[in-house]
Specification:
Two copies of one chain form a homodimer. By secondary structure, chain A is mostly helical. The first copy, chain A, is elongated. Chain A has helices at about 30-35, 35-45, 55-60, 65-85, 90-120, 125-130, 135-140, 145-150, 165-200, 200-205, 210-215, 220-225, 230-235, 240-245, 260-265, 270-290, 295-305; strands spanning about 5, 10-15, 20-25, 50. The first copy, chain A, has a four-stranded mixed β-sheet with strand order 3-2-1-4, covered by helices on one side.
Amino acid sequence: MKFLFTNILGSFVLDEQGKMMDSILFTDLKEFTEKKSEDLLQKKYKQSIPLPQEKYHLFLSLVKEKKYYELFHQRNLRITKKALKASVSDDNLITQAIANMGELDKITNLLSKRFREWYGLYFPEIGEKIASHEKLIEFILKKNKKELMQQFSIKETMGSDLGKEDLEEIKLLAIQLQQLYLLRTRHEEYLTTVMKRYCPNLLELAGVTIGAKLLELGKGLKHLAVLPASTIQLLGAEKALFRHIKTGSRSPKYGILFQHSLVQKAKKQERGKAARSLADKLSLCVRLDYFKGEFKAPNYKKELEERFR
Amino acid sequence: MKFLFTNILGSFVLDEQGKMMDSILFTDLKEFTEKKSEDLLQKKYKQSIPLPQEKYHLFLSLVKEKKYYELFHQRNLRITKKALKASVSDDNLITQAIANMGELDKITNLLSKRFREWYGLYFPEIGEKIASHEKLIEFILKKNKKELMQQFSIKETMGSDLGKEDLEEIKLLAIQLQQLYLLRTRHEEYLTTVMKRYCPNLLELAGVTIGAKLLELGKGLKHLAVLPASTIQLLGAEKALFRHIKTGSRSPKYGILFQHSLVQKAKKQERGKAARSLADKLSLCVRLDYFKGEFKAPNYKKELEERFR
C-alpha cells in the first residue's frame, strides 16, 4: 500500500512506514493549484491511495526537516500575502471613507468651537447671529466686520480691535476649517461613486451616509446580506439594545435608521413601524446588491413613501 | 446741610431729607470721568459735603424712577461693553493660539492614524518603515509606490492595487493633514512674534510652547507674575498634586516644565532640582516682563545651563 499526499511543497509518495518513496517538489505555487504532479505520481504508482487523515502524522514528521520547514513557512507566507492583497474590497474603502467622515465631523466641531471663541475676542456678536459653523466661517472670510455689522444690523460690538496679524491668524484657522468641510463633501461624493457601482440599491434607498454607515456597522455587504432585517433595523443601537436586555428598559426601535428621512417624517407613533418596514426593504436591497440583482430600490422607496405619508 | 453725589447719570445735590435740590445730568459718559460737574455744584453750594455712605439709600430711592432707571441700565451696559472691549490683551491671544495648537495636535494624531489605516490597504509596509506621521505623509505625496519600495528596499507588498480615484481620495486626506501641520507651525511662529513683544524674558527662557502653556495655565502674565515660584514649578501637574494631597502619594516635582530641555537633559536624580531652579528664574522673568523690565533671560539661561550640565 502506498500513500499519495500533496501540499504546498509538492506531491509525495509514502510507504506504509511513512518513508518517502518519491516526490515532485513544486518550484512555484502555481503548480499547487494545477494538481498535475499528483496525477503524474498516481499514474506511476497505480496502487497508491490518498493519505488518510489519521496517517497525516507520518508526513508531518518528514517535513520537520529544516529544508522543508523553511520552504513551508515561506510558501505559507506568500499565500497569506496574496490572499491579503486580494482581500481589499469596496467594503474596506467605503468603511474607511465613512469612518473618516465621522472623524471629520468631530474635528470640525472641535475646531469650530475654538474658532468661535477666538474670533469672539474680535467680534462676538456675529457668532450669536449665525448658528451654523460653516455659514459663519463663510461670512467671515468674505466680508469684514463693518460689512457684517451692516448686513446683520448690529449697531455696536464689544469685540476689541485686533492687530492685522492677530486677525490673520484667526482667519488661517477659518480657511483650514473651510477646507475640512470641503474634504467632507468630497468624501461624500466619492462614497456615492463607489456605492453606485458596488451597492446601487442600498445607496438609492438608504442614501449615501446611512448606507455607508450600515456597511460599516454591518461589517461589509456580504455580512449585511445575511443579517435578518430586524438586526439591520437596530444597527447602531447596540448600546440601547444591551441595556434593554440587561435591565429590561424599553427596547430600541431604531439605530442609525432613525436619521433616515422616512423615519424622521413619519408621525411619532409610527416611527417604529416605519423603521421596521425600511429595514425590511433595506434587507432586500443588500441581498440584491450582493448577488448583483436588479435595481429595484426606486420601487421600494416609492412604496414606503406612499405608506408613511 | 446739603449732600453732593455723582454717579454715571450726573451730579446731584440733595437736602437732608433726600429731596433733590439741583442736578447736572451727563449727556455723555465722558463727563463722568472729567468730574467737572461736581466742581460746579460744589461752587454753587459751598456748604455741601459728599454724600456719606450710610445715606446712599436716600439717593437710591430717587433713581427708582423709570427715566433714571432706564438711563442707569443703558449707561452701565455701555461701560461694561467698553471695559470688555478694552480687556482683550495679548494674554487672550496667546491663550487661544496655544489652545488651538493643542487641539491641532490631537486632530492631526487622530487623522494620521486614520490615514495610516486607509493607506495601509494600498501599501501597508511603508507605514512600518516611517514612524513619524508627518514624514510618512511627505514621502507619500512626493513619491509613488514603486519609488518608495525602491528607496526603502521593500521587495514585496501585501497592499492591493487600488483604483486611481480610490487612491486620490486617500491623498486628499494626506494633503489636508499636511496643511494642518503647516497651520500648527504657523501658530508657533505667530506666538513667537506676540511673545517677543509681550513677554520676551519668558519666551527666551521657557521657549515658545512651554512659555505659552505657562501663560495659559497661569491665566495670564499678570497672574503669573504674582504666583510663587513653587506654584510655577507645578503648573500642569495639578492632578498629581491633588492626588498627593489626598492620598499621600509622592509629590510631583514638575508639571509642564518637565518638557523643558534643561530638565530633560539633567541627570535623573537632579531633575527635581533643575525644575525648581528653572521655576525660580521663570518667576523672575514673568515679573520682569510684567513690569516691562530689562531683558535678563539670556543670563539666567546661561547660569542654569552651566549649573546643570
